[in-house]
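worker-03 picked up job from queue 'complexes'. Input manifest follows; two sequence lines, order preserved.
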Amino acid sequence: MLYFHPVTSFLMAEEKKSGVTSNLKAKIVIQQCLSATLQVKPQSDGVEAEYVEIDRGVVLYVCFLKGADEETVEKMAKFALNIRLSEALTGSKLVSILDLPGDILVVPQATLGGKAKGKMMQYHSNISKDTGRELYQKFVDLCEADIARNARTSEANCKVRGGTYGNRQVLSLQTNGPFTHTMEF
Amino acid sequence: MLYFHPVTSFLMAEEKKSGVTSNLKAKIVIQQCLSATLQVKPQSDGVEAEYVEIDRGVVLYVCFLKGADEETVEKMAKFALNIRLSEALTGSKLVSILDLPGDILVVPQATLGGKAKGKMMQYHSNISKDTGRELYQKFVDLCEADIARNARTSEANCKVRGGTYGNRQVLSLQTNGPFTHTMEF
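worker-03 finished. Artifact:
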């Protein structure tokens, strides 16, 4: 049985409300990891749950807000792949995930669009679920293309994995320092 | 041997630079977890590393910027403890971590103060390490006091655990949905 988290139900309801204008189009949270596992299909009717896995690299939690488009996705992917936040395998230099080279796990995370109102979070600025899913897939595709194009990541067989948009993100993360960064677009 | 992550070295250097004024005083990232483990003392000279652990609850990544004071810490703790982001154990209601009731892991995360400049992150707005450590401890103390005062959390023996300020945050996280939220103060 598919179960929707209350936040997901909220988001579905919020879609129907009128738009709230803002310059903010997307948010990303970046964490460094040694390994991470994410469920892409929940267990159902005796069929086991399915997971994807990455080794050393980054976990990218992404959220698209109203007004986000392909240009937003391109900017965000360019930023995430080139910003120097990963510890080089030797020495103490910070390098990009492409230069590490490392794996990438992209987690859909619509909750990042939340704004507090009293003791509740509201998600009025979130993009519609259908457009969000498209932009999310575009983001994963761009990461995959760049990982394949880059000499270091392709030689090292680095991989890009993504979650299932709209699902509960059952996640396991191991890190020797998440060095969490947030970025808005 | 103590090893400083390049970001930590950066932060140490940034402390010495002149202040950058901003209204932003603190940032927090909140993730829901089933369990989490955090290193509080790294392995050294044959002595094993030490860890703290929480069960179901929240992981709070906190960062203080220049201008943060006790009032900032109080606002942030009040927010984190009362915002309704946790799934109730029965039903589909969202409740506060106090009402869940659940555990709290506070992770010092100075990297949240980062601002991108080209391909690098800069941490000019971060508070000095000494003041940051004080405010961090104050935040943990406030969480502990509220958990002890609250009937639900104290009856359920919920716990607050914190990392070691300035250390590498070796973290392991299991979640059935991080439902990541960010908040600025």
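worker-03 released lock.
Chain A has one domain: 6-184.
The radius of gyration of chain A is 17 Å.
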